[in-house]
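Hi Y.,

Following your request, here is the sequence exactly as I used it, all 203 residues.
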Amino acid sequence: MSVGIRREMTTGSQASEAARQNASLSELADQDLVALMVRGDKHAYRVLVERYYRGIIGIARRMGLTGSDAEDAAQDVFVRVWLHREKWRPEGASFKTWLYRVAVNRVIDLKRKPQFVDGSDLENMPDEAISPVEQLAQHQEFRRLRNAIKLLSEQQQIAINLFYDRELSNQEAAAIMGVSVNAMESLLKRARKRLREELKAMG
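Below is the corresponding structure, written out as tokens. Let me know if you'd prefer a different format.
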């Protein structure tokens, strides 16, 4: 057997083994994957990225980032996750809650930079990583709702995004935003009231 053939067989075998490993890891819960990632397991890290990358892009876009800005924000979040993995403390919030908190804070930071574009062209952006709710928003009957959401305060937009688009509980959303559950419920109540008013005004 030639060296070239042996090398190809070895490479193929390694690829197959990596695929099997990733498939096995994908069945693990977040806390187990994070424990492996903290010890430097890049396969576990990749599974976490695959699990949440689309969700982070969805958050970024719903908060007003568009196109490559949303993708850059998601990539930056996961770079930070890897670089600071050893600081993770399992006794704190869940990984998902912690990750979304990092994402929300990062998007807020990016929006405050002078070069940020206000996202007025969001309706026309091709969106390859949108949530089911956002897919519905492509239809005309939901465009009014999206436009109304843009008129909410930044905090209200984040609350609506986390609770409805990401389908998080009040407790999870409150932890991500750093507020009490009561404050989160009040924020959602005010946001829904404002949305009804804006939709009524739009006719």
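The first helix runs from residue 3 to 25.

Thanks again,
Q.
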